[in-house]
Every structure is written in structure tokens, then in C-alpha cells.
Amino acid sequence: MTRPARLTVLSGPSGVGKGSVIAAVRRRHHQVWLSVSVTTRAPRPGETDGVEYHFVDDDEFARMVAAGELLEHASYAGSSYGTPRRPVEDKLAAGVPALLEIELQGARLVRAAMPDARLVFLAPPSFDELARRLTGRGTEDDERVRRRLDLARIEMAAEDEFDDLIVNDDIESAADRLVALMEITP
Ligand code: 5GP
Question: Is the pTM value of this prediction over 0.85?
């Protein structure tokens, strides 16, 4: 029987570079599977339904919650986000290393539901650097950037709850550390 693979949760404030670090890991290790979340937020330019997210409306999100289809879910900056349960369970049972890229409340819920999961916090080199990255990304207007920076302060205060901390001062070295923590076998 295949030994269930480990589930790794990568969390950290918006703008810290979770997506870039995960992309670097997956370029090197194609077998790593990344969960595609459901969200009620509107797609950003360039985002495709089913790729970055499954984009759903509030009713469909509520239906999925009520039906127990989400492993965890949380509200973040006025939208809802959640991890479809079934694909995660299937991948883990098949021995595929799985990654969730989610925010703090969701990470806490995964810890409660799956105590074997490894929780990794990706931190910026400094708060000022995070503010620069989030503003420079240009995907959010000023009000939304402010809201995300307020949430970032809360998330950064919770980093001690995580099993491991990676400072993202360089994408490739952060990816090296994540690969090591995931114990991926080549
Ligand atoms: P964004 O709107 O920038 O794509 O994501 C906002 C935040 O929601 C990010 O911190 C991202 O990691 C988090 N997020 C994305 N998908 C999920 C999910 O399925 N569950 C939870 N709890 N957070 C998520």
C-alpha cells in the first residue's frame, strides 16, 4: 500500500511571494500537487477559472460548506476562500506530496483536522519590504492594499504557531528550504 504522503501548508501574508516560491518548487519537482481553492473573490486580469482558483458565487460557496465539501474555509479581506476536501484526500492516499497555499485561519483549521500536516510560514524580510511588494504588484487598489497590510500584521504575529519559518529574501533559496521540509524524494 502507498504510504500516505505528507500534507504541507504554506501560509504567510499577502504579497510575501507564496505563489512564486511554490512555482519554483514545482518547476523542480513536477510531482508536487497544489490544491486549487474555491473563492468568491472576482478573478484578477489573467486568472483563469479552474487554474488559480475555482471562482464561485456566495450561494455555491455556502452550498459547498453545508455539504461538507471543504476541508477548511475562511473569510479574508471581504471574500470567502476554501480548500476542496476530496482532491486533497485522494492525492494524499495516492502518495502524492500535496501543498495548500492558504491564510492563517485556514492553516489553524487544517492543523485541527489533520494533525500530521506540516505548517510552514513564509515571512517577508521586513514589514516595509512586504508593503513595497504589495504596492508594487499593482493588483489591488490603495484601500485593498491597506486592508491586506492590516491583516499581514495579524498574520505575522502568529508565526510562532507554525512548525517552520522561511524568510523569503530570495525565491530560489526559499524554494530550497521548502523542498527540504516537504521531504520530497526525487
Ligand atoms: P488572494 O486573493 O491574494 O489570491 O488570496 C488571499 C489570501 O487567501 C492569501 O493569503 C491566500 O493564501 C489565501 N487563500 C487562498 N486560498 C485559500 C483557501 O482555500 N483557504 C484559505 N483559508 N485561504 C486561502
Answer: yes
